[in-house]
Design goal:
Layout lengths: L2 E4 L8 H4 L4 E2 L2 H10 L7 E2 L2 H20 L4 E4 L6 H6 L12
Parallel strand pairs: 1-4, 2-3
Length: 99
């Protein structure tokens, strides 16, 4: 049995590997954390449209995994990755529907 694990690093993603600016629920909190780590990486707060696009991308990745023969999909939402960043009041200070 093969299970594919899907996740998104969010604030923990490294631009040096992806070439992309890390995305976060709340930029101000992410930047505070980056300064504590002495990591002055620019971060981008996700817009409503981008959040919906990410949800669609998770669904598409799951669909591709199943088509590729995986028996199951695990969406990893712990260890301070993006999904957990949305659930934590420490990293998510949004006041919209995603807060």
């Amino acid at each position: 049995m093969a299970i594919n694990q899907l996740h998104h690093g969010g604030a923990l993603a490294l631009k040096q590997y992806s070439g992309m600016v890390p995305v976060v629920p709340s930029k101000d909190i992410a930047m505070e954390e980056a300064k504590k780590r002495r990591d002055h990486t620019e971060m981008h707060e996700l817009t409503d449209k981008e959040i919906n696009e990410l949800i669609e991308k998770f669904a598409h990745a799951a669909e591709l995994s199943i088509k590729s023969g995986y028996d199951g999909i695990e969406i990893h939402g712990a260890n301070n990755y993006l999904i957990q960043q949305f659930y934590s009041p420490h990293t998510n200070r949004r006041t919209d529907e995603w807060g």
